[in-house]
Specification:
Helix content is 23%, strand content 38%. The chain is built from five helices and ten strands, in the order E-H-E-E-E-E-H-E-H-H-E-E-E-H-E.
């Protein structure tokens, strides 16, 4: 395991968001875990802190766990592995099944926050939740709303301060 500079790996994160997604994982205060594929959000800088902004839709099981959590993680498969698993966790609902068992994915405890990381990934970002805010149609460009939110299912934005960023493939 090797600590890496978040700003220096932000491009890798954005590239994977745009080309297949990354794993967003959470463990709530009762110890329940879930992961999902996310292709939106990304690195940011707020409040003089490195931040990851994660948009989560209301109908996601992950949201119900995040509402009772203080942290989340991002795990990125940098070498082309886990494409089937990313597709699986992006199309199956954690309310109905254990997605880890469903696609033979394993997790480990995060090193700095009370959450999990995806074992088979290479890059991990651990975040402490700093802000939760609802998206608002009133402040949104109409074309964006019509294209992405016509069904009214807006995202909840989770801003997490990056407290650890490391690679396990080096």
């Amino acid at each position: 395991m090797k600590d890496v500079n978040y700003a220096e790996v932000s491009g890798l994160i954005l590239d994977h968001l745009a080309h297949g997604g990354i794993f967003f994982s959470v463990k709530d205060k009762q110890g329940r875990v879930n992961t999902m594929n996310t292709a939106w959000g990304g690195p940011a800088f707020y409040w003089n802190k490195n931040v990851y902004v994660a948009p989560i839709r209301h109908d996601r099981h992950t949201l119900s766990l995040l509402q009772n959590a203080e942290s989340f993680t991002i795990s990125v498969p940098l070498h082309g592995q886990l494409k089937k698993e990313l597709a699986y966790v992006g199309t199956h609902h954690g309310y109905n099944e254990d997605k880890f068992a469903g696609c033979n994915l394993s997790f480990a405890e995060a090193k700095s926050v009370d959450s999990i990381i995806i074992d088979q990934c290479d890059l991990h970002i651990e975040c402490e939740i700093q802000l939760v805010t609802e998206m608002d149609k009133a402040g949104m460009d109409k074309n964006v709303y019509d294209k992405c939110y016509a069904d009214g299912d807006m995202h909840v934005l989770y801003f997490g301060e990056v407290v650890a960023c490391y690679r396990t493939d080096l």
